[in-house]
Amino acid sequence: MGKEILVIGHQRPDTDSIAAAIGYAGLKNELHQGGFQAARCGKLNRETEFVLSYFAVTVPPLVDDVRTRVKDVLDGGLLFIHPEATVRQAGIFMRQHGVKTLAVVNNERRLLGLFTVGDLARLLLEAWDTGNVPMDEPVQKVMHRDNLVVFHQDDLITEVRQTMLDTRYRNYPVVDDDHCLVGLIARYHLLAMRGKRVILVDHNEKSQAVPGIEEAKIQEVIDHHRLADIETAEPVMVRNEPVGSTATIVSKMYREQGLKPEKAVAGILCAAILSDTLLFKSPTSTLTDKEQAEWLAGIAGIDVNDFGREMFRAGSSLAGRSGREIILEDFKNFNFGGTMVGIGQIEIIDPGTLPVGREELLAELEKLQVEKNYDLIVLMVTDLMRNGTELLYTGPQARAVERAFNVAPGVSSVFLPGVMSRKKQVVPPLQRLLQK
């Protein structure tokens, strides 16, 4: 992905997170003639796989973290010399290019050793006494080949920095998996270093962001959730609107620029709106969501209702999933004033499609609560046909669910008619109770 600006959604991505990243990267590339790359930081769920396959859109590359690595600071210069070159040739080459260290490599560019201006000076000083100036000797006879400090291109800069402080050499060779030279790194690279550039879509909460976000340079935030705890070193463009989907905002931005997304991109953006608004049944749904979905559907050549039902049918198929996989299908972490809460959500069309029973789901919730030390962990089983959600929950702060939704003490599940949205109907009341 090189030096491109990453456009990336939250961990455990849903259709909105992926579609917004692809759509916004496409818009930015059209406006700026390239330089933006959609990415993801987790495995796709079945609904999103269906959507991308339906519209023949390539799955964005996986980014495990955005911490700065050695390859991110290399400047592209690659100077080296072969072992049969003479000391004289090496010296001339150094002077021509203004460098003080040369990597010595074979014909496959595998690193053999280093020859430095210090080595050249040492040879000339020794020749002062002997009268024998070894300028026509091959560098392989005088190069350093033992105890070299070599970095791999995927090494973290935080680890490299400490090694540099401990050894204090002028330059260090960088190699790939085959021990082939990819460049030299020096202390000045670290002084000029800047974090990877990232645009966040569909989230603004550190616990949901790609690992290493604290080292990245956040360029923009496009979201439709509550404002949370993402911090930046300087002002950035933030667009946060109370609509049902981030894809709705991206669609509006295309129209504001007088542009239309490509047919396939329009299709996945429309799908994301339908997904996040639960076919406009969610209380987060707005007239703007409907307007944008219809506009996008026209470009993509789909019927909103027919496609939406087909998408939910594909996405709600949980056959073969374990209880834990079902819980983590669409799972988000929240920190409410030091209280750690995990909330998962799945959508079903038919209760019979759940491949495991409530008892197994509750048992897995209890295991996860202990393993991750959650104060409260909740699974929302949202039934699109019944227009409501069953909450399964456990943890030391389970009383918060009872108080928020008027549930009798001592139970571990409750069906809430009309509750469809995690963001608008479950998170806010729990946050009010737990953040006090």
From TrEMBL:
Keyword flag Hydrolase: yes
GO CC terms, sorted: cytoplasm
GO molecular function, one term: metal ion binding
Annotated catalysed reactions: diphosphate + H2O = 2 phosphate + H(+)
E.C. designation(s): 3.6.1.1
Cofactor annotation: Mn(2+)
Sorted UniProt keywords: CBS domain, Hydrolase, Manganese, Metal-binding
InterPro entries (alphabetical): CBS_dom (IPR000644), CBS_dom_sf (IPR046342), DDH_dom (IPR001667), DHH_sf (IPR038763), DHHA2 (IPR004097), DHHA2_dom_sf (IPR038222)
SMART domains, sorted: CBS, DHHA2
PROSITE patterns: CBS (PS51371)
Record keyword Metal-binding present: yes
Signal peptide (from-to): none
Enzyme class: hydrolase
Protein name (database record): inorganic diphosphatase
Organism encoding this protein: Neomoorella glycerini
